[in-house]
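Collaborator request log, item 7. Partner lab (contact: R.S.) asked for a structural prediction of Endonuclease/exonuclease/phosphatase domain-containing protein to inform their binding assays.
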Amino acid sequence: MSPATLYSNCKPEHCDPRMRYQTLLKKLNGHIMNKSIICLQEVAIGWVGPLKTHFSQFGYDFIASNYGRPSNGYMGIAIAYSTEEYNLKDMDVVTVNEGKQWTTPPAPLSWTLLQYCTSALSWLLAKTMNASLTLTPASLGEYESSKERQNRQIMVRLEHRGSQEEFCVATYHVPCLFQFPRTMNIHTALSCQAAQKFAKGGPLVLCGDFNIQPWTSTYRLVTTGRLNDDDKNHPKTVMPAGDHWDPVVQPMRSAYSDFLGEEPPFTNYAQKAGEAPFVGTLDYIFLSEHWKVRGVLPLPKETSAFETPLPAQNEPSDHLLIACELLL
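Returned to partner:
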């Protein structure tokens, strides 16, 4: 998922999948030794088997769900936990867009005319070429784009074997659609709603690549529980008549912000070919009110800590690993 042709400002060897996989294992092994619960996103299907095998050697259960396309390695998500430390009490995998009822909006006039013209000319097209229509998120609209996205969420209920305390952990990867903030608001709200429903009011940790920055309305949605009615990115601005779903969630705290008083400067440092570098905070560990944060993994404050944009020598992804220690 990080080919050298796309990440041309990185050293080619740092984009090599075999080297990146070994670097990933080195980065994870210390956390495995501590019996940490590990949540992963953008897991290519070709890595699921090797990762499950690696985790099993340390007494871990590894739960993965893949839903992507050939172009992104059928990427998915995963949760790994120590079976010596935790007992699995419940588990669910959901496609979050199934968490609400969707209304079919009326077709715009331009699409109606296109359908008519396509029908009228279908005999000609069949004789002259193989033609197909691909609807992009822009042509579908943000509402239809939200409906069509099949991103999944893994949720587990774990019991700590020593204390018998139970808590839930969920992981999600919000669609990377910066140009469609309402789609991201819809999916983030659905992710939170699904996780909170699964947790049934109990302790919850929601980890993921949310593709949102701290100043966005989506971040405010998670941390305050709702959007202002006059927010220009409120989903209601694209919801058709008859859809009364409300993107309201129980407010959650970010572990880093709670402990440090602010989010880290960045968790993602990437530069694709022909583009300016992107530096921003996109990854979070969101917590229900039950938790006390005892510490967080320190992160670099400047991109100068790295020779090139990520992936780099000791960083297998363009995202940094984030971690925290929690007390229930």
